[in-house]
Design goal:
single chain, about 600 residues, 32 helices, mainly alpha, about 0% strand
Length: about 600
């Protein structure tokens, strides 16, 4: 599950097509909002706005099948408007009044995916349930929008705020804070508050050097700077009138804000980190969900340097793995420790945590890999993969000893979970010397999920000699969607030129919902313009294609022509506290959470 939520920055398939390289590490929430470079495989502006968008719009105007409509709405939002245009929001807005709840909530979040700051007031009206403002936009509802629709509007405010700057960003923050101040205590539920907190974590306001950072936790009178955001979130973290499930997402929101370079003053950052860390005190009777959020957050804000605060963060993460009764928190602590230990810090030794001393992270994680329970060994391996990938990205060099141990661990893996985790660790580290053992496990593994992870690892290490073998697995995997998705992703990483036509053919002929989702996801993540014409043909072929096939053709078109390099919800998924999820955030059983939408 950790890999599923955090994989996008490491895969970076559309970034490969756009720029020839992978995105760096796990700093995904605030990647630069830049236009991808152009090459022969990436959809052009002409493809997107003159070919795909008119076809999607035409289909939406006549379509009556809910699944296809939903796919079209999200796809149009991903494509977005040309500079200076605002037409897409007008196509989406009427669906807010649709009697089908899934379509109504999809329309709300699609306005966020669209990312047009002109829609901020509209999204606020949805969140606030302002029927008069909605009627002014032509949305005729008998009453206020449903709780789910309002939660999706809150997520949408975060997405628009993330893409905005200046006054629009301030308005997005003000709308979210105002709802929490007014209604969160009496809401009696977690959906909208969790959406508001999560959205706030995407919208870092500018620093204000004149703000006096309070030493005690209290609610600021206003929230117009990142210092005040952090103070308000710290106050929210201690609100016992809120559900632990709501408070569990506050630490990650704080950490995401602090990761914006030079955004907050040093004093504000230090106090925020201390307020997160104190919730992990053994003497404090804190809810397990909140502890998980604090562990994840510490992994986002610490670094490998010699600063006193960063040393304390690393010590807390090391100690937590030994003292916390919650095994999941201990596992997350291993990942968090790897993240901070590969992040360049300050002082004479800015990567001191990488050293092989008594306080070094490498020997600590290696010991957990060699002596822990199977689940701990899996997380220790993933943590070592994250650590070595981060070390390489930081220019510090990787440890040959660590990579050798990971290779040996994969050879001796005793369960499908271990095969998958150890393989992904080697893939994360991009260790070319692991190719032989990975190939062996690709043939030996019988569990489809483990085998798929091995294939992804081969893609990450760049073993093009395995393309033919993985192609054979793809051809036989139409009834194994997880294996199909991962092997297709592996071929995309390896630059297989035959993959896209094969996947389009498979999408046309697939019979299961999961298989179609897997194929559409692979096509979209690869982002190859050669898929556009056959997908458009499929979308318009009502006689020979089922409604679900056409719906996923729309999904794939939206992903392929997305204005962003990474999936729009990757910034919400990475480093999320998915163990404290709400139905509108993540709902694997129904596929209707914001992190489930393709």
């Amino acid at each position: 599950m950790w890999w599923g939520f955090n994989k996008d920055a490491y895969l970076g398939l559309r970034a490969r097509i756009g720029s020839g390289g992978l995105l760096a590490g796990s700093d995904i929430a605030f990647l630069p909002r830049r236009e991808p470079t152009q090459d022969e495989l990436q959809p052009t502006a002409h493809d997107i706005h003159d070919k795909v968008k008119p076809a999607l719009r035409a289909a939406l105007s006549v379509e009556r099948q809910n699944d296809v409509q939903s796919g079209l709405i999200v796809a149009l939002a991903k494509l977005g408007d040309r500079p200076g245009e605002t037409e897409v929001a007008g196509w989406i807005a009427p669906f807010l009044a649709h009697p089908n709840q899934e379509l109504a909530e999809t329309a709300a979040v699609a306005l966020g995916i669209l990312g047009n700051e002109r829609e901020l007031d509209f999204l606020r009206a949805i969140l606030d349930g302002d029927a008069e403002a909605l009627r002014a936009r032509g949305v005729g509802l008998d009453g206020p929008p449903s709780e789910r629709t309002r939660a999706f509007a809150a997520f949408g405010l975060g997405l628009v705020g993330y893409r905005s700057s200046g006054v629009p960003r301030e308005r997005a923050v003000e709308a979210l804070v105002a709802w929490m101040q007014r209604e969160s205590a009496s809401a009696g539920q977690a959906e909208i508050p969790v959406a508001c907190i999560t959205a706030l974590g995407l919208i870092a306001l500018p620093s204000d050097p004149l703000v006096v950072v309070p030493q005690s936790v209290s609610s600021p009178a206003r929230v117009t700077s990142i210092e005040e955001q952090l103070a308000w979130l710290a106050w929210t973290l201690e609100r016992r009138d809120l559900s632990p499930r709501v408070r569990a997402h506050v630490p990650v929101a704080m950490a995401r804000l602090m990761r914006v370079e030079s955004a907050a003053s040093a004093v504000a950052r230090a106090l925020a980190v201390e307020r997160i860390a104190v919730r992990l005190s053994r003497e404090l009777d804190e809810a397990a969900e909140v502890r998980l959020g604090c562990v994840i957050a510490l992994g986002l804000v610490g670094n490998a340097g010699e600063g006193a605060l960063d040393v304390r963060v690393r010590e807390r993460l090391r100690n937590m793995h030994e003292t916390l009764r919650d095994a999941q928190a201990g596992h997350f602590a291993l990942i968090a420790l790897a993240q901070v230990s590969a992040r360049v810090g300050s002082g004479a030794s800015p990567l001191a945590a990488l050293e092989f001393g008594k306080d070094g992270t490498r020997p600590f994680l290696l010991e957990r890999l060699s002596s822990g329970a199977s689940s701990t060994r899996c997380y220790a391996a993933l943590a070592l993969g994250v650590l070595e990938r981060g070390a390489a990205d930081a220019g510090a060099g990787q440890s040959s000893d660590v990579l050798m141990v990971l290779r040996k661990s994969l050879e001796e893996a005793r369960s499908p979970d271990e095969v998958g985790a150890f393989a992904l660790a080697l893939g994360l580290a991009q260790d070319p010397a692991s190719i032989a053992v990975l190939r062996k496990q690709l043939d030996a593994a019988s569990d489809p999920e483990a085998r798929g992870h091995v294939a992804v690892a081969l893609g990450l290490v760049g073993d093009r000699a395995s393309i033919q073998r993985i192609q054979e697995i793809v051809a036989k995997s139409k009834y194994r969607p997880d294996l199909l998705r991962n092997t297709a992703l592996a071929l995309g990483l390896l630059g297989d030129k035959e993959l896209v036509p094969q996947l389009v053919s498979m999408l046309r002929n697939a019979t299961g919902l999961s298989a179609r989702a897997a194929i559409a996801s692979a096509l979209g993540l690869i982002g190859d313009r050669r898929s556009i014409e056959p997908l458009l043909a499929m979308l318009g072929d009502r006689e020979n294609c089922t409604d679900l096939a056409r719906a996923f053709a729309a999904v794939a078109l939206g992903m392929c022509c997305d204005k962003e390099l990474l999936p729009w919800n990757a910034k919400l998924a990475a480093d999320s506290n998915y163990r404290a999820s709400t139905a509108t955030l993540y709902s694997p059983d129904t596929g209707t959470g914001i992190l489930d939408i393709l």
